[in-house]
UniProtKB/TrEMBL annotation:
PANTHER family: PROTEIN-L-ISOASPARTATE O-METHYLTRANSFERASE, PROTEIN-L-ISOASPARTATE O-METHYLTRANSFERASE 2. Belongs to the methyltransferase superfamily. L-isoaspartyl/D-aspartyl protein methyltransferase family. SUPFAM superfamilies: S-adenosyl-L-methionine-dependent methyltransferases. Its EC number is 2.1.1.77. It comes from the Eukaryota. GO terms for molecular function: protein-L-isoaspartate (D-aspartate) O-methyltransferase activity. Pfam families: PCMT (PF01135). This is Protein-L-isoaspartate O-methyltransferase. It catalyses: [protein]-L-isoaspartate + S-adenosyl-L-methionine = [protein]-L-isoaspartate alpha-methyl ester + S-adenosyl-L-homocysteine.
């Protein structure tokens, strides 16, 4: 799925562009985004599990993307990814690594006109949706394929109080 999402977003991941990775998990895809947008770009990863953010930072520090983390063009944050990360918006590319029941409005708001979001939608039956925001702000959505992802949820809902 990472390769598919990279391919779907590649036109929005050129040097100097901005990308948001919601549910950044291990940091693998976030690091790939950083390599594609380069030092003049900006990549933000958001996950609501602090331990995953810590692990992703360690993973990226051991990778070829380490310099982007060190220089600050790549950052990883603990937060509710459904709200995006407003500080560095708007984004040319947004990847969501968990299935939402509907497209979170804050993510649409943070998607740059001309930008693209890839997000799995659905509960039991899920589809990978490609969302393009036109220059006039209108949205075009198409289905890429059927998928199966974990739900996009809050930390409390995911961990059940643990």
């Amino acid at each position: 799925m990472h390769a598919t999402c990279l391919q779907l977003l590649e036109d929005k991941l050129h040097p100097g562009m901005r990308a948001l990775d919601v549910g950044s998990g291990t940091g693998y895809l976030t690091g790939c985004f950083a390599l594609m947008v380069g030092a003049e770009g900006r990549v933000v990863g958001v996950d609501h599990i602090p331990e995953l953010v810590d692990m992703s930072i360690k993973n990226i520090e051991k990778s070829v993307a380490a310099s982007f983390l060190k220089k600050g063009s790549l950052s990883l944050h603990v937060g509710d990814g459904r709200k995006g990360w407003q500080e560095f918006a708007p984004y040319d590319a947004i990847h969501v690594g968990a299935a939402a029941s509907e497209i979170p409005q804050p993510l649409l708001d943070q998607l740059k006109p001309g930008g693209r979001m890839v997000i799995p939608l659905g509960t039991y039956f899920q589809e990978l949706k490609v969302i393009d925001k036109n220059e006039d702000g209108s949205i075009k959505v198409h289905t890429e394929t059927s998928v199966r992802y974990v739900p996009l949820t809050s930390r409390v809902e995911q961990l059940g109080g643990f």
